């Protein structure tokens, strides 16, 4: 048992003088998949660290060989024997057995998560692989004793787990202190810290967790009881590493990962009841009452056939209530829908939680699991040895069944949990986005390259729903919505959180592909919901209380708005929604919460969702004779909550029709590849957005603030016009949000004047304010396409008035010739009147129902 | 032909031979070679017809561990499993350690050394496959007829034995001491000298089908459509599993494994899991689903698979693109003529309405050929309104369609069906499988929705959800599978035909009101006459025509593009309200389908004009109809 401590200490010095081993590669795979006989893997292993020459003299020199590299056939077996894991016994007994003054008899707790319960069947004393493991573990332990974890400072730490800790003090010492106060003997260790401290140690931790983690435990306990000799813990501290860099998609798990430390994410779909698992069996002889304890080995207990005391055969019986059990729970997790390839079903994995990790998660939770992958041969029962399965005793006689010699050649695999981390926990409490999406270096590089391009904004906008024709500004608006503003917290000053999400209303003629746009957005964002106003009730949008058919308990079922927290809620047919349903949106769209008071449940749920709504005008077709407000006909309270209100009008113009026709026809004959080249693909766009949302938090610059103030003052001025959507402080906020979103598009941490300019432009464009006649408040659709300037419009107005005067001067003539009228007008006017101007004036007057033009005759109507 | 027999009847022997030969040369890539060997064999002329098919040969006639094929539909994908790729076993006769290969097998041989270093774990995936849902009877017969596999039921099978008396049979039952053997009669070879061999044979004949039926009641085979029959199997895939998609139709060549040891082991697992909750990770339900008795759900170890572009036995299997130019050109030449015949036939069926018949043809050759972000292109859902409510017109109509398309399904939209049927597949987490629904269909299946069955009443939650699912299917050609914590979207390609009396409550790409040319009093008699089928040769021509037209490539030349654009602009100029972008969309689809139905692979000016004309006729009819029935929306 003393072997770990008595190994010559030369290496210790070697490592201290050389704390950072040269490391280029990440952890390499353990020799599982490879055949043990032929080791072709040494090539891709870690390079040997440069150890000081003193090491060569020390007796441990040959061992050193196997220390830093994985299995080598050259290691003589006798060296291996000494440090083979089988010499330790189980980790628990090792800790117990080692005389330690500091630990002072605090009972060790077994670690079934690492334990030999389900150890793979290939453990072989002669195996050089395991020898190497053991010596590595050894090194880890040596190492651990001087591991200056106490000094580790992580200034960049932003994790919620570290709240309340001083970032400039040694992190783990603070955690130990916390343990001494709270008395919860669990120390969570971020693997990334280990890696930044020593990459080699990290590699060992990943590849041989079963051996390395117990040594971590020992070191931590020693350290702890040195520092806090008086503290009393229920049992010894257990180290729980998490955040192993090799975070894996469940789909990528393969046989190579067996017995390694892995971190995977997924969603809990089922949890079993608590299973008492036997750790140590207690046998008592029926004849002489002699008792013996047998530890569980690889999930089975070797039942002693002969009583050592009285030599009676088969006299020992298991005594249940004196045996030791530990808690165990089976949890099934399913890969999260985000990282699944299209057209396949999600995979599930079985996970075992032990001891206090039992009942930590519920079905539906999204979690990151750090654990050890293990497997069991499904019907692993070699003949001839009477084995008792751990758990419940079964009086199974030796099976003389010939069928037993055939074995189903399939392994069952599972993961023993060492650490759970709920990914959606932060969503409930924290403010920042929970999108813990990991980007590879290259991906980040490509994204940054893209961001550096001057036309990135246009590019992204055109990549959005390429099948939808034109509507550039609407796409830009939606793009900004996807990025969102910066979250600000003013709860200190009593204003609560500021909304960072942009809400957009699309209002327009039928058949202008509004629904298609909504569908596209719904498909693009990871947490999107799509509802139709006609089919949804207030309850369906918010939440309802129902009786769970299985548990018969009242449960709160969340609706679309809550489900799209941190996402986008697309609401089609917004105008068809009943007023009472629409009214629930008031709270969501500004306070971003949802208050519920029903059936004895009073609560407030987060609904930090962006709303993208589509509505038809009140008469289902845009009436150009009416003002914008009259056409939309939504309560002002709701309207002001939309940052952007886009009018999608059918311009009814030949040039537009031609472009539209071309676009549609090309949809039907262009091949897939042609289009791929033209636009960014959806995955790229999605990554770009996710990256910007996670990492970019722009702040307003001084000039930008000034520009915003000016813009707001301008908006107030315009707003006093008839039939316009007038500006409120809300509009100032939405300008800020849009400007922030725009600087996010550029990956800029600072909001600058160009961002404000774009926000302003978009805000104006959205409402077609440029096309609105300030006098009447009507939207002139022909301006939208012809792009007539304000001065031209003014001149037209003047010409029309002049023409009216000319006609009135003529007295009561019901009809007149086109040409004579033109001549008359030309004579009267000071400026040159072209034929086009005359035509326009005529049209303006006919719009007023003053006259009508038929062929070459002009008739008065009034 | 000894070699043929070898790879057909003992493919495992071939694999093992290759494995053994490769032992001395590491990295020989024997696995790839083995797969290539079978691929080559199957490429030979007609070779694939020698392979017996699980679709038409009853399972108990097939030899275990022989090469079989299966035309199937991937209904569910199970979790990957790790198995012993190679292992060391002790040969019982020589007591020497031998290296064995675990590939393409479910069960290892005796005396496995678990601690051996040469054990190598490998990964394989399991797919749950069912026959293609809604496959028409004529397709099944067609495939079965073309098979040349010599299926020798059993060496001891003697037909004369059928005439034995009842008492003898009972007698046998008493003396039979091994009921286990009866349940899996097709395992191990029976020598004729076996004392109870004859009785066994007899029983095999009688029991195999009945046991299948009986056990089907307690074991849900999870067919997407109710009332389906046929074998399902667990397909074990050894490479390139990422290439397979859910709901894909594939033809698989693989090694059949029905080893009774599998069921026995499963039983044992189940019983042990009852006693020992820690040992069994699976619930009883899961166990039942994932390791059903091999006699009911055989395992198929895949050697080679090819996706099926269509399931029409009349067409060459390879698809149209490659090496079938002769076939293609000959069919293309005939297409216009066949189309005329088919049009006449449909006109007759649709009560003399030629326009509706025209649209029906267009509908039947439609196909989602691509997707532009969320928008599926090429779909053409037809709503045939004004169906006479007499003499079960819709059912008869469906039967005619079923005669023509390879797979189809009739869904009567009765209130009961809508409220109770499971249309959308749902994940069952207890059994860890995807419970199938009627909308889990293969590509190009014709879904016939009979809305005339709808009666007054209330749709409950399920009903509303089902109607929404149908609406989504029609508008976006996708089905959102229910994974209870989230939904997952699966794209599909299903031709939906809605028969209704008034306008359908579901959306559709195109609605046409049937104008009966038959006077109402004669309707009954007329409908009775419809049932008369055309001749088999003509039917086959129709079938081939529809499948070919659907698979043709299509393009639009630049000058036609221009004229189409001009046309659109002109039409808009006259009356902007009359034609919207949506109408152009539809006209482009109609033009495309019209060209394809005539066997033209590019749009010509004539076809475009014709499409315009047809659309105009339809629209004017709709207007008319609106005027007649003022109450219709």
Characterize the structure shown.
The complex is a heterodimer of chains A (862) and B (633). Chain A is 37% helix and 19% strand. Chain A is an alpha/beta fold. In chain A, strands 4-8-9-12-10 form a 5-stranded mixed beta barrel. A 5-stranded parallel β-sheet of chain A has the order 16-19-22-15-23. Chain A has a 3-stranded antiparallel β-sheet with strand order 26-28-27. The N and C termini of chain A lie far apart (113 Å). In chain B, the strands form 5 sheets. Chain B has a 5-stranded mixed beta barrel. Chain B has a 5-stranded parallel β-sheet with strand order 12-15-18-11-19. In chain B, strands 9-10 form a two-stranded antiparallel sheet. The chains are: A alpha/beta (862), B alpha/beta (633).
Judged by helices, strands and strand pairing, the structural class of chain B is alpha/beta
Using the CA coordinates, give the radius of gyration of chain B.
Answer: 28 Å
Largest sheet properties of chain B? 5 strands, mixed, barrel
Unreliable segments of 5+ consecutive residues of chain B = 153-217, 269-280
Category from helices, strands and their pairing of chain A: alpha/beta
Shape of chain B: elongated
Hey, roughly how much beta strand do the residues of chain B contain?
15-25%
User: Which sequence of strands runs across the widest sheet of chain B?
Assistant: 1-5-6-8-7
Strands across the major sheet of chain A, in which order? Answer: 4-8-9-12-10
Based on CA inertia axes, which overall geometry of chain A fits? elongated
How many helices of chain B does DSSP assign? 20
Q: Helical amount among residues of chain B, as a percent range?
A: 40-55%
Query: Termini distance of chain B?
Result: 70 Å
- Mind summarizing the main beta sheet of chain A? 5 strands, mixed, barrel
